[in-house]
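User: Hi! I have a protein structure encoded as tokens and I'd like to know what sequence might fold into it. I'm fairly new to this, so please keep things simple.
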């Protein structure tokens, strides 16, 4: 299926590019997105360094890390809001630096942010088409094709397995999880190839998180390359194909699913080793017994969570 006749420098058609295709010139796999040793600093703060990851069609790449780990900085580079200042960022095998979110969208990269920009009182279908309304008629007779937009909204939501009785209801009446899902369906409808989800489950309960995780898999199955940002390994592991772990702006690991277990992912994320060390230091320093007990309890909880794979908040 690879376009082996593509001459040097010719643009590779996105639609023809499938998982596992090879660049005809270099005979290396072509990825939807590829970052190599990417770094970014703000003044003298190094927000990100040594980040290497790929995004492929039909695959979910998870980015894990605590607050300040550099997750937002990373997605801002991919979504065209910021530019990296070291390393390379390639889209379909071509090195790029994106100057605006518009450029990212044109390259098929859509981001769904945690604080969704929705107009709560407007119907679901209006939010779905906000800024890209379908019209009918011409000149002074031009008007919004409401029926068509309702129909498309319903169809796209159904295709994602989302069953909403009424697309006329205000989007504000939907749960947080459902709103995320509408945003995902919207990105898919408007042609996204890469879907970035910034902590879509962070503010949700267990059940709602499950709903969003299912739609992440739906998007994957529709052939999108998904970047799923989260600090919860229990959300990442079941849906992810690859895992990038960030800590204080640095990549501390990048794993294929077959090379890591949920326990390892959890303990890396929770910093179990660091906590144990802290408890030890406190003990040496004759720490306050109450504080010590608290840290020890935390260590126990972390290792228990790692061992049983239970949900941690
Ligand atoms: N616009 C900015 N100016 C200066 N420092 C920033 C800016 N954005 C992020 N940082 C710093 O970069 C680091 C990574 O932040 P961020 O990417 O927001 O992490 P995360 O999303 O994982 O919480 C933090 O130390 C943060 O303070
Ligand atoms: Mg962030």
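Assistant: Happy to help. Inverse folding works backwards from shape to sequence: for each of the 313 positions I chose a residue that suits the local structure. Here it is:
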């Amino acid at each position: 299926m690879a376009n082996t006749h593509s001459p040097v420098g010719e643009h590779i058609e996105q639609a023809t590019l499938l998982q596992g295709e090879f660049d005809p010139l270099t005979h290396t796999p072509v990825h939807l997105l590829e970052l190599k040793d990417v770094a970014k600093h703000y003044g003298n703060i190094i927000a990100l360094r040594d980040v290497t990851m790929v995004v492929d069609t039909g695959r979910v790449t998870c980015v894990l890390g605590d607050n300040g780990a550099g997750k937002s900085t990373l997605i801002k580079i991919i979504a065209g809001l910021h530019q990296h200042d070291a390393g390379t960022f390639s889209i379909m095998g071509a090195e790029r630096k994106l100057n605006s979110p518009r450029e990212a969208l044109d390259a098929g990269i859509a981001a769904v942010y945690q604080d969704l920009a929705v107009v709560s009182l407007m119907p679901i279908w209006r939010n779905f088409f906000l800024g890209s309304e379908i019209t009918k008629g011409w000149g002074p007779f031009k008007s919004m094709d409401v029926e068509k937009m309702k129909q498309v909204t319903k169809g796209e939501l159904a295709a994602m397995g989302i069953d909403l009785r009424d697309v006329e209801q205000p989007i504000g009446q939907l749960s947080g999880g459902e709103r995320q899902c509408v945003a995902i369906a919207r990105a898919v409808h408007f042609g996204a190839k890469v879907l970035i989800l910034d902590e879509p489950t962070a503010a949700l309960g267990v059940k709602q998180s499950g709903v969003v995780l299912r739609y992440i898999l739906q998007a994957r199955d529709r052939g999108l390359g998904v970047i799923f940002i989260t600090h919860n390994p229990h959300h990442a592991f079941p849906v992810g194909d690859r895992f990038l772990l960030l800590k204080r702006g640095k990549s501390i690991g990048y794993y294929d699913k077959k090379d890591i277990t949920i326990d390892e992912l959890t303990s890396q994320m929770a910093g179990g080793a660091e906590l144990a060390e802290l408890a030890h230091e406190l003990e040496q320093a004759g720490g306050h017994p109450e504080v010590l007990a608290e840290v020890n309890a935390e260590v126990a909880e972390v290792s228990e969570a790692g061992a049983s794979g239970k949900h941690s908040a």
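A useful reference point when you look it over: The chain has ten helices and twelve strands. Feel free to ask if any position seems puzzling.
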